[in-house]
Specification:
The complex is a heterodimer of chains A (about 350) and B (about 120). With about 350 residues, chain A is an alpha/beta fold. In chain A, about 20% of the residues lie in helices and about 30% in strands. Chain A is built from 7 helices and 20 strands. In chain A, the strands form 6 sheets. In chain A, strands 1, 2, 5, 6, 7, 8 and 19 form a 7-stranded mixed beta sheet that branches. In chain A, α1 packs parallel to α6. The longest helix of chain A is centred in the C-terminal third of the chain and has 19 residues. Chain A is elongated and about 70 Å long. Chain B is an alpha+beta fold. Chain B has a 5-stranded mixed beta sheet. In chain B, a hairpin with a 5-residue loop joins β1 and β2. The longest helix of chain B has 9 residues. Chain B is globular and about 40 Å long. The chains are: A alpha/beta (about 350), B alpha+beta (about 120). Chains A and B meet through β17 of A and α4 of B.
Amino acid sequence: MSETIKTDVVIIGAGPVGLFAVFELGLLDIKAHLIDILDKVGGQCAELYPEKPIYDIPGIPFITGHGLTDALMEQIKPFNPTFHLNEMVTTVEKIGEAAFRVTTDRSKVFEAKVVVIGAGGGSFQPKRPPIPGIEPYENKSVHYAVRKMDAFRDKKLLIVGGGDSALDWTLNLQPIAKRLTLVHRRDEFRGAPDSVNKMRALVASGAMDLKIGQVSALEGADGQLAAASIKGKDAVERVECDAILPFFGLTMKLGPVADWGIKMEDELIPVDTAAFETNIPGLFAIGDINTYPGKLKLILSGFHEAALMAQKAYHYVYPDKRLVFQYTTSSTSLQKKLGVA
Amino acid sequence: MSDVQDVSPSTAAKSETMPKITFIEHDGTVHTVDAEIGSTVMETAQRNNVSSIVAECGGSCTCATCLVHVDEKWFSVVGPPSTEEEDMLDFAFEVTPTSRLSCQIKVTEALDGLIVRTPAYQGR
């Protein structure tokens, strides 16, 4: 059992809006921990369009998703936030006046005065292939991630996909698997050329198999796979297997947010437009996940929401203090916090 | 004295020149809609509530949730995917030789009458 992490604010989601919230909170001497299901910061900017252009950030005529993420990380550096990546928040409970308990799927426990949900379109989760009857096998013999390699030792494995995840796990698991078969829809791979060459060499030497096609049916019982059918161009082939690892990328699912007792509307969280607070005092929602009259899902709107959220959050974190609004341009005290004065 | 025909000239002219696209959803629902030249087939679907086009990434060719199967007669007019798009098709399901990501198909006059079918499942 891990120790409870105590902090002012827990921010759920380390996308651009969650990152900028660190800045706005930091100016008000509020410390934050951020939790994100991805293995990197930046949210959709990092996962969906790292190299694609964004043209509507005020004052920045052109920037990529990756560039914006890097710039925000630089901007929030003075506030030294703590990141918990590769981790999904499973529960949020109110445990008192300005007190929340937050737990994650890695059994971490946080206690915070304020919780900010900046979860965008929800959590990025693996795409599930539409193979009939796949559900009973999931997490038993169909796995969307490898937590422990040893679980696949001496197993007959089917890895499905053509990108780096599929290729990396093929190369890592082939030495310990009883037999490994890589299945891909075409005989071309978008993964790193070096990995493709290594995989091709293993196929040529007979150390593993490569099948071109799509998995169309499964055989097995009680969640334990026995074989899969692979539909190729002209024929269907049956391949024996103990486990399948599909790698079809990620998709956004709302995830556990719906179970936290927050009022929701069409998978979005209604908030007031003075502070972007939910129906639960001290629990805020900013960025793409919230809704209010006139809402636009723009990064710039999320930035505005973060600034106003921070003003209200201050009253939960420092209930006895009076907040005096200041500008970074002229306030020595703010400039000291930013490390520039 | 014709107050019956209340179609403004601009609207009338517009719909005459606007290509029509037909979306056939997996459950048989058919939408035949006007498409704006220069927009994409994905945007056309979204404007007209064709709900089986998800388009999670908003048209950046990075999510493969706007898959369509182009009618075989139309495939030569629409043309094949780029290398980048072909790579993204790896993230889609039940891909056929005429599958395309609809965010990568730009509407032109030549596409007037285009027929595409949408899959039952876009990965979510």
